[in-house]
Amino acid sequence: MRCHGAFFAGLIAASGLALTAPAHASLEFTFSVPVSGTSSVDGPPATSISGTVTGEFTLPSDNTTEGASDFVITGYPAGMDWVTAPFDVFADAFPIFNTFTVSDGVITSVNFYEIGTPTDNEAIDLTTGSATFYNIPGSAQVNSTAAPTFSSVSESQPAPEPASLALLLSGGLGLFFARGRARRTSFRNG
Known about the structure:
Order of helices and strands: HEEEEEEEEEEEH
Structural class: alpha+beta
Number of strands: 11
Largest sheet: 11 strands, antiparallel
Strand content: 35-45%
Shape: elongated
Radius of gyration: 27 Å
């Protein structure tokens, strides 16, 4: 009877842990924005800049409106005079706006605006339909020539939550003790 009492106590404790909120998977996205603009980084006259700004970001979960937890610029056109790519946008700056809406793994709305420090020399204004990228001294600015493209890369799976593991372990221990007790009883009776 003691084994059953311990088993049920473990089962009740594991059930209590199972009521905690489950872990959620985070979503990873890339983006690509065709841009054109001008630069006077090297002084007048201004030179033309064109190309693509690319990056990646991580969102906490699907079917929500939340801020990115990670935002990295992976490439940009020559003439922007930013730090070497890839660089973490959040390393030296805090975004003024950081809102991404995700529905079934698809970005449906973006409002991201960040001004870096003179060290990282960048500012980013990214929305669902357009984007502007410039360096802080204002000597280079490029605007999107088409809407940004957002692509889902992956959904990172969380580790099993402790409540599930505790429930599995308590069930296994209960079966182990019940089998041992059945063996002892059959050995005595046999």
